[in-house]
TrEMBL record:
PROSITE patterns: ABC_TRANSPORTER_1 (PS00211), ABC_TRANSPORTER_2 (PS50893). Gene3D superfamilies: P-loop containing nucleotide triphosphate hydrolases (3.40.50.300). It holds the Pfam family ABC_tran. The lineage of its organism: Bacteria, Pseudomonadati, Bacteroidota, Bacteroidia, Bacteroidales. This is ABC transporter ATP-binding protein. The keyword Nucleotide-binding applies. InterPro entries: AAA+_ATPase, ABC_transporter-like_ATP-bd, ABC_transporter-like_CS, P-loop_NTPase. It comes from Fermentimonas caenicola. Residues 2-238 form the ABC transporter domain. One of its GO terms (molecular function) is ATP binding. It comes from the Bacteria. Signal peptide: none annotated. Keywords: ATP-binding, Nucleotide-binding, Transport.
Length: 259
């Protein structure tokens, strides 16, 4: 579990995050949603340690991330997996070598064991046949899956995904969503996904935190999103005609049952 307490972040005097309080639970896909510039990516970067907040606490299973000593911090970071928006694979390395990179850097296993772990991760994401290919030789969706395999190679307790469906077609996006959900449940990770894709929210968002202009406006489950009594959240969710139609259909069904 990860908990954020009274988190504030300022850039050159501007308050980008304002008194954020939220909890992200183990074994669930926790989604941070909001429009572009809302502060959701800044929040994730603070949680993962890429940015240092102005004030507040970030608790990893009861331990304050911001107060850890160097040795403790290094140990915790080995428990963190990161899926970057652009996949961030090394062009000069094969898919297998990309997945092995964190293992070569941080694992104490021997070469044979590291390779076996990398091959297992590739099999888990359905990329065994692409092990010896280079990133330029595979599709965008395959690159995302390779990046997921790399992110879980060290068997992390915490997985962070920044806009995992960016640039992907709807079918591939769904496959990536399902993969993130499956590995979260299988490995009982605390997964945090930053997204503005409402399809992903409805598909896999066990828990949802809505950020608007640096403020946490709403927190709940995906089943509560459609009926939330929050005007700003509704404006964000129903900006899509598809979700307006879904809401209208649900309201009609509810009225018919009452009638």
């Amino acid at each position: 579990m990860i908990e954020v307490r009274h988190l504030n972040m300022e850039f050159e005097g501007d308050n980008v995050l304002n008194d954020i309080n939220a909890r992200f639970d183990k074994g669930l896909v926790n989604m941070i949603i909001g429009k572009s510039g809302s502060g959701k990516t800044v929040l994730m970067k603070c949680i993962v340690g890429l940015l240092t907040p102005t004030s507040g606490e970030i608790m990893y299973d009861g331990h304050n991330f911001l107060a850890l000593k160097t040795k403790e911090l290094r140990r915790l970071r080995r428990d963190i997996g990161m899926l970057f928006q652009g996949s961030a694979l090394f062009d000069s390395r094969t898919v297998l070598e990309n997945v092995m990179f964190p293992l070569d850097m941080f694992s104490r296993k021997n070469s044979r064991e590291r390779r076996k772990r990398a091959e297992f991760c590739l099999e888990r994401v359905g990329l065994s046949d692409a092990a010896n290919l280079y990133p330029s030789e595979i599709s965008g969706g395959m690159m995302k899956r390779a990046a997921i395999a790399r992110a879980i190679s060290l068997n992390p307790k915490y997985l962070f995904c920044d806009e995992p469906n960016s640039g992907l077609d709807p079918k591939t996006s769904q496959l990536i969503d399902e993969l993130i959900e499956d590995i979260t449940k299988d490995f009982m990770m605390t997964t945090i996904v930053v997204s503005h894709d409402m399809n992903s929210v409805i598909n896999i968002g066990d828990k949802v935190v809505f950020i608007n202009e640096g403020v946490k406006e709403w927190e709940g489950t995906k089943s509560e999103v459609m009926d939330a009594d929050n005007e700003k959240l509704n404006d964000f969710v129903f900006a899509s005609d598809l979700f307006k139609k879904i809401k209208e259909a649900e309201d009609k069904i509810s009225e018919d049952k009452k009638g």
